[in-house]
Amino acid sequence: MEKMTSKVRVREILEQAKQSWEQQGQDALLVVIYEGLLKKKVSFPLLEFAAKEMALWIPEDEQLYVMDILVATKEMGSYVLAGMMLQLRLPLYLEESIQRACAYIVGGDQWYVCDIVGERVLGHALLTYPEKTIPLLKHLAQYSDKWIVRTIGVATHYAVKKDLSPKFAETMFRLLLSLSDATDFHIKKGIGWGAKTIAKFHPTIIERYRKQIELPETKQWFRTKITIGLNRNKVAKSL
């Protein structure tokens, strides 16, 4: 697979895609993006750059269609492009973007799809619009789909790592704690990831919930992630 490392080359492909779109329509645009970017080895930062550029000239009312077609290819890079474009739409279309992200996550049916889209859309929404996003995440916690529940932990990890306010980090920890009885492997990975990150960056939150963490209903896997996070906090302080 050809590797692409040049932003200049990405710009050239995008210019070709734009011209194809203007002259022949959306289908021609999609062919250029598929052949020029998705079938090549392109880093996530370059794909994010491409998504930002595309969002500048693809009309808002056409962007969702473009994302749907790209994601339908099941190429890993398509989820980066779609996730970044949905992130850019969050200020105006927060709920719609989260709903679309969840649809891509369920349809992708792979851990990496959950994590790629979850971080870029739900995680960024939690970081930038916590008051609006947390109620939506609480609602998603009731879903039966394992990927939707997993993405709550993924979003928490992203937002906390990016300096989510301690107030909202504590709210998210309570939500993660309520999911600590999970038995599905993928749910445990996501929820544990979020809990571990909170423990690393906000150990005082963990201390406030020590009694609940030690209850029998809280599974050992959750306590183990907390311990790992606390240990990483100690290591970071010692450096």
From TrEMBL:
Looking up Gene3D superfamilies in the UniProt record yields: 1.25.10.90
Q: Which domain of life is it from?
A: Bacteria
InterPro entries in the cross-refs? ARM-type_fold, DNA_alkylation
SUPFAM superfamilies for the chain: ARM repeat
Q: What is this protein called?
A: DNA alkylation repair protein
Origin species: Sphingobacterium ginsenosidimutans
